[in-house]
Amino acid sequence: FTTTGDANDGRGWPPERGTLPLLRAINSRMPEDVLITEVALAPDHFDPIAHAQAKGYSYTLHVSPHRPLWSRRSAFHAWHALDAEAMREAAQHLVGEHDFESLAAAGHGRLTTVRTIFDCTVASARPDDPVEADPAGGDFEPRHVRIDVSGNGFLYNMVRILAGTLMEVGRGKIQPTDIPDILAAKDRRRAGPTLPPEGLCLEWIRY
User: Does the predicted TM-score (pTM) go above 0.90?
Assistant: First the structure.
């Protein structure tokens, strides 16, 4: 949002005006459910993709024999019971520097598929809404299973494929100890399905 050159060419926000007026101007045009809390100066050559040092994503599964209601836009409906402990064990095999070609969509367009995963966790909790928490005659109690993953970069659809692979672990279709072999195969067919965008959330980016 800033012009750092000698002459103002009409781009960006002049640093001498300060960031508070810019913050107020941006928030005046934001929808009610979006609020900017901080604005910082960046150089003209700043690239929001190339200069990112780390990113964090989450993927939420609504595990229930019944479809989600209140979380229908923010969680994927997994109607099979899932073993969250097995998913946690499998997630630890993803941490570290690996070639993630098996977890990348075909035609990803990247020169290398090597990435570093800093952390990958799986947490299970009952849905907050009491309607969703009522099994209503189902054969297991509804809950949310949330996958949180952070790394230095992600390939196209990588998080959604990662979540699909861990879901298959939770279903017993893939064993936690199969994860190293899946990565070593560098074969997309060895991993789980690409889950839909419902449930996926970009939580943060660190520069």
Answer: no
Distance CA 109, CA 25 (A): 37
Q: What is the pLDDT of residues 15-61, one digit of tens each?
A: 889 999 999 999 999 999 999 999 988 888 889 888 999 999 999 99
DSSP string for residues in the chain: -B--SSS--S-SB-GGG-SHHHHHHHHTTS-TT----------TT--TTTT--EEEEEEEEEESSS--STTTTTSEEE-S---HHHHHHHHHTT-EEEE-GGGS-TT---S--EEEEEEEEEEEE--SSHHHH--TT-SS--EEEEEEEEES---TTHHHHHHHHHHHHHHTSS-GGGHHHHHHHT-GGGS-----STTEEEEEEE-
CA distances from 82 to 65, 86, 122, 135, 149 (A): 12, 9, 11, 15, 19
CB 151 within 8 A of CB 68: no
Per-residue model confidence as pLDDT tens digits over 182-191? 999 999 999 9
